[in-house]
Design brief:
The protein is α+β, with helices and mostly antiparallel strands. It has three helices and eight strands; from the N terminus they run E-E-E-E-H-H-E-E-E-E-H. The strands form two sheets. Strands 1-8-6-3 form a four-stranded antiparallel sheet, with no helix packed on it. A four-stranded antiparallel sheet has the order 5-4-2-7, with no helix packed on it. Helix 1 runs antiparallel to helix 2. The two termini are 29 Å apart. The relative contact order is 0.27.
């Protein structure tokens, strides 16, 4: 892959005068990866230095607890949905009060939201790479308990790098006048 580079030729002074300046190379894009939920790390699929693709699965938490919560929320949702559907027919005939119907509708909507959250929490037990890059650092090992939002992996995009050089201001001023 060819990358454009801006080059400046600075002339003047002694031919053998060479200046060196401290600097560093950084990835232009990096991310601290963490799970959105807490749990026991079940499977770490990468190690430091591995090249990963976008959306590649990097690690998994034990999903057992989240699967049980999902099952419970599904049962509550199914029950509240049936009650709400029955109440809709009964309120139309005047067999239950509007207040009872509104309560059942609220329970149904609340159960739907809880079910949706339980599905998301189960999905959050799988960590995927947000972009193509290289694993720079791994902060945890398999079977460790990790907290929600605790950094697990450091990912760097190495397709584009930033080079940062510390040049004294006095030299920058003299170079500015020489570049045309």
């Amino acid at each position: 892959i060819t990358r454009p580079v801006k080059i400046f030729v600075v002339s003047g002074g002694a031919v053998d005068a060479i200046r060196t300046f401290p600097g560093r190379v950084d990835a232009s894009q990096r991310a601290e990866l963490a799970f959105r939920v807490s749990g026991k790390l079940q499977d770490m699929m990468v190690k430091e230095g591995d090249l990963v693709e976008k959306d590649q699965v990097l690690a998994r938490l034990d999903p057992s607890d989240y699967a049980l919560v999902l099952e419970d929320r599904q049962a509550k949702f199914d029950n509240s949905k049936r009650n709400f559907q029955r109440a809709r027919d009964l309120v139309a005939d005047g067999n239950i009060s509007r207040l009872d119907f509104d309560r059942m509708e609220a329970e149904y909507r609340s159960a739907a939201a809880a079910l949706s959250q339980a599905k998301k929490d189960l999905e959050y037990t799988v960590m995927k790479s947000p972009f193509r890059g290289r694993i720079a650092q791994r902060d945890v090992e398999n079977f460790e308990e990790v907290m929600a939002k605790q950094t697990v992996l450091w990912l760097q995009n190495i397709d584009q790098l930033d080079v940062i050089i510390n040049v004294p201001e006095s030299i920058v001023r003299s170079v500015r006048g020489a570049v045309k």
